[in-house]
Structure to design on (317 residues):
């Protein structure tokens, strides 16, 4: 299997339905190779849902879209036990979470009890219904979208759940030329364009296995842990950020940086991870794991600005 040819083909097929948004497309492919979940944040109409739909069609996987609403219940996601009168016993009805790709659209519109129903599925790749535990299909990805501006009728995601997302991708407005081309595309064809199935679930697992063979030296691991520790103990790295960071990255941040850096090197057809790979994925991996303090919010200092400062300060090996 020519992995580089496959990755190039995925990009070409997605371009049939999306104009621009290179960072979003790259982030989705990296997450798929690194075997992690993605939180996509952006204003309405920026092709968040469309991108995931296209990727699912390209990958020939089982795909379920969940529209999160305030009246949603955990059982609507994972399933429940239903009493069967004919044989006087309870039977398990599996929910839509049993799919390879799950799109949790507008995840912050559902209350915490529903969001927490995803916790076990995202971390353990399994679901417990009653007294029975079911394994989820492999590969398994949760792609969640949220709108950053609307506050009414939304619920902030708990930090514990946000940390389970490998990356948080920010989708911005397209350029004028890209938007004009996009408008032409949608006006001429309102439905999703037909794309060529390229990857099977087995081939996705094979790509992940290939990526795990990319070498990473201890000095790169050391650089990664320095970056994460700088978010927890900035004063030890001569960073004036202590008053601006309420909580720094957890050990999952170090793991995610390593996984995404390796996937980035793999996409560039290199057999070894370099510090530039770490820098390339640092914002997407760390932005949702650094919890700004009240002082940071009051002064308008964002987690991205703090990551920028950390990257410029920590010595590259």
């Amino acid at each position: 299997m020519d992995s580089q040819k496959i990755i190039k083909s995925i990009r070409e097929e997605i371009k049939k339905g999306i104009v621009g948004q290179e960072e979003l497309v790259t982030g989705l492919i990296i997450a798929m190779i690194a075997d992690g979940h993605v939180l996509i944040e952006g204003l309405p109409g920026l092709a968040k849902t469309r991108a995931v739909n296209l990727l699912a069609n390209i990958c020939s996987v089982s795909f379920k879209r969940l529209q999160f609403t305030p009246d949603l219940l955990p059982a609507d996601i994972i399933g429940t036990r239903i009493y069967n009168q004919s044989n006087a016993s309870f039977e398990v009805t599996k929910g839509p979470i049993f799919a390879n790709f799950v799109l949790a659209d507008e995840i912050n519109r559902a209350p915490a009890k529903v969001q927490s129903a995803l916790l076990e599925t995202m971390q353990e790749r399994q679901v417990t219904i009653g007294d029975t535990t079911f394994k989820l299909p492999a590969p398994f990805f949760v792609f969640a979208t949220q709108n950053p501006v609307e506050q009414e009728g939304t619920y902030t995601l708990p930090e514990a759940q946000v940390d389970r997302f490998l990356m948080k991708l920010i989708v911005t407005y397209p350029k004028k030329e890209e938007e004009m081309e996009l408008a032409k595309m949608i006006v001429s064809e309102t439905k999703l364009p037909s794309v060529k199935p390229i990857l099977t679930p087995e081939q996705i697992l094979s790509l992940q296995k290939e990526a795990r063979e990319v070498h990473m030296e201890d000095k790169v691991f050391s650089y990664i842990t320095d970056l994460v520790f700088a978010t927890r103990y900035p004063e030890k790295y001569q960073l004036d950020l202590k008053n601006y960071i309420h909580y720094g990255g957890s050990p999952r941040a170090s793991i995610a940086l390593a996984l995404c850096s390796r996937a980035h090197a793999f996409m560039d057809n290199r057999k070894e991870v370099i510090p530039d790979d770490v820098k390339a994925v640092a914002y997407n991996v760390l932005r949702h794991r650094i919890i700004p303090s009240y002082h940071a919010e009051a002064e308008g200092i964002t987690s991205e600005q703090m990551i920028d400062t950390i990257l410029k300060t920590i010595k590259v090996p």
